[in-house]
Amino acid sequence: MPADAGAAVVARYARRFHAAALAAGLRHHVASPLGAWIVLALAADALDGPARDDAAAVLGLPVEDAVATAAALLAEPPEVVAAAVACWADPAGVGERLGAWIGRLPGTVDTGPVPTAAEADRWAAMHTDGLIEAFPVAVDPTTVLVLASALATRVAWEEPFALVEAAALGGPWATGLAHALTRR
CA nearest 59: which of 124, 127, 1? Predict the structure, then answer.
């Protein structure tokens, strides 16, 4: 699949992703639709029947094509994006069917046993250039399966933003946020 076609599919997913977050009341959120799309594409390969069809509809591609697109993105991420996916599992807990799915994951996916919380924190920090210092989900000895993505980029602005009190901006943001970025 050409890169621009994959980008269009993920862009459509991103619009639905952020609309769903807003509908759930998350007026201000930071999330990666690309990271979520990659995780969903890889996880969808474990499904069959109507659930697989539903996943394909959400992904915007047949599952096989979505898996190939995700694998290509992970194999050659854009130069400015650090991208990683991990699938950690307790082999005794996931069973034969999910074990077979884990075996089909692209070679770029980090696999292995469920890490300790400290190991998961190190993975997050390593794959986000330190931008995420702690793994955002609790990982403990009862955890059976973790499928996670980490995407990060560093940007620089020709004209840096300044931090201001949100009230200074007026409008609907004045009461919903404590601080905002501005160029003025």
Answer: 1
